[in-house]
Amino acid sequence: MRTTTLQRVSCLAVPLLLALPYFLGACGDANSDGSKKLQIAVIPKGTTHEFWKAVHAGAESAAQELGVEAIWKGPLKEDDRAAQIQVVEDFVVRGVDGIVLMPLDQVALAAPAAEAHGRGIPVVVADSDLDWPDRVSFVATDNLHGGELAGEALAEMLEGKGKVILLRYLEGSASTAAREAGFLQAMAKFEGIEIISSNQYAGATTEGAYKASENLLNNYAEVDGIFCPNESAAFGMLRALQDSGRTKTAKFIGFDASDKLVAALREGEIDALVLQDPVRMGDLAVRAVVNQIRGNAPDARIDTGVVVVKSSRIDEPSVQTLLSPDLSILNQ
């Protein structure tokens, strides 16, 4: 069959029309003066936990103040390395102006970060460190110190003696590995404290954390203290303690906050939470990459702070800001 010129044009038009939204997105919004807004890709470890919503709010707040566009995209689950790698690679192809990366694996995400750097895209690493030397800045909690604070608080509650469980989070996660190391360092200072389990992992989901916690509580009838180094692990352990009727038999410290963890802290089912400032983390990470693009190199290490909160402090205004961050900017 003979193909007409009109048919050939139509065949070319179809893929172009399909690709049009992508190219329009790549162009980005414009500032009031007509100039193109900088596009900053913000790539979290996951998108379901409350912690990441707070990071998102901070990133969006900074973006609006600085007149840039923050594009938020990450994997659904925090153990999906392939998905996060793909997100980074897609943004590199898209040609964003800068990237804030919260790597869920300190090794696996080094190669796509290096690819971005090689294309002239500055990369700020946030929340969890990366085995890669060319990051613009590392914006995060001092996680080792956070773990030490948890250990010191738990030792004080136990008066320096007792049987303790550490339920780890996920292999390859640098931030939680540092918290776990800091906790164990603090525990080692007390001869009367015995770590009866420190080699079990909660995994990336609350269901996995619940099952791991249930197994630990079934294996150890006598437990005096428990530490979980992130939100999902702490929530899984909380559910297991509630279901087994053991919320009052062991001192329990978690890391990060959610509505259910805060409610448990108020009820005395959790004895303390170690709190980061995720809103500030998102804010400072976006500012760092924008400063780099605009010729103002940020500090190589930016500490976003960490504090231990017991139930007695739960209603302090400064603590409420951390426990219940304002996320309204995400609904605008």
Notes on the protein architecture:
By secondary structure, this protein is of the alpha/beta class. It has 2 domains: 140 residues, Rossmann fold (3-Layer(aba) Sandwich), CATH 3.40.50; 133 residues, Response regulator (Rossmann fold). 45% of the residues lie in helices and 17% in strands. It has a 6-stranded parallel beta sheet with strand order 2-1-3-4-5-11, with helices on both faces. The protein has a 6-stranded mixed beta sheet with strand order 7-6-8-9-10-12, sandwiched between helices. The longest helix is centred in the N-terminal third of the chain and has 23 residues. The protein starts with a helix and ends in a 9-residue tail after the last helix. The relative contact order is 0.14. The N terminus is likely disordered.
**Number of DSSP E strands:** 12
Secondary-structure element string = HEHEHEHEEHEHEHEHEHEHEEH
Uncertain parts:
1-27
CATH topology of the largest domain: Rossmann fold
CA-based shape: elongated
* CATH C-level category of the largest domain: Alpha Beta
Helix content: 40-55%
Short description:
The chain is α/β, with parallel strands linked by helices and 332 residues long.
Question: Main attributes?
Answer:
single chain, 332 residues, alpha/beta, Rossmann fold, 12 strands
Q: What's the arrangement of secondary structure elements?
A:
Layout: H1 5-27, E1 39-43, H2 50-66, E2 69-72, H3 81-94, E3 98-101, H4 110-118, E4 123-126, E5 138-140, H5 143-157, E6 161-168, H6 174-187, E7 192-201, H7 206-219, E8 225-227, H8 231-243, E9 251-255, H9 259-267, E10 272-275, H10 278-293, E11 301-303, E12 307-310, H11 317-323
Parallel strand pairs: 1-2, 1-3, 3-4, 4-5, 5-11, 6-7, 6-8, 8-9, 9-10
Antiparallel strand pairs: 10-12
Helix pairs in contact: 2-10, 3-4, 5-6, 7-8
